[in-house]
Amino acid sequence: MKIYIDGDGSPVKGETAYLANKYQLDLIIVTSIDHYSQSPISDQVKYVYVDQGPDAADFRLAGLVQAGDLVVTQDYGLAAILLPRVRVLSQAGFEYTSENIEGLLAQRFYHHQARQAGYKTKGQKPFSQADRDKFSYFLEQVIDQELQR
C-alpha cells in the first residue's frame, strides 16, 4: 500500500507524511512544477512533478495508483475516476464512495452554474487545527483497516 496526495493546494501533507512515516508507508505527492520546493517535508516523501495544466496532476495520479493504494484529494472529479480502483479520502476527513460521489459532483455542478449566473457561493473556510486533527484521526483509522486486511 502506498499513499498518494493530489498535492496542488493540499493542506494535509505534513499530517499524512507523519502517519506514512509512523507506519513505514511510501508517500508520493503529485504536484505541479509550479509548487516545486527545495525543502521537502521529509526524506521519505517522494515528489512527482508534472507540467502546468488544469488536470496534469490528476492524469498522472490516475496512471500511478494501483489497487490497495490510498489517495488524498479534494477534487471530486479525480475521486470519481479513481474510486473503482483505490480508496479515495478527502482532506475533510471522509471517504469518497460510490454512494456519495454523485451527490458531491452534482453539488459542484450546481455551485458552478450559480456562480456563472452571478450568484455568490460560499468558499471554503480556512483549514483549522481541528480540521487537521479530524483528518489525521480518520487517516490513521483507514491505514489500520488496510493493514489488517
UniProtKB/TrEMBL annotation:
Its domain of life reads Bacteria
What InterPro entries does the entry give? UPF0178
Q: Which residues form a coiled coil?
A: none
Q: Pfam families, per this entry? A: DUF188
Q: Which family does it belong to?
A: Belongs to the UPF0178 family.
List the HAMAP family hit by this protein, alphabetically: UPF0178 (MF_00489)
Q: What is this protein called?
A: UPF0178 protein AWM75_03315
Its taxonomic path starts at: Bacteria, Bacillati, Bacillota, Bacilli, Lactobacillales
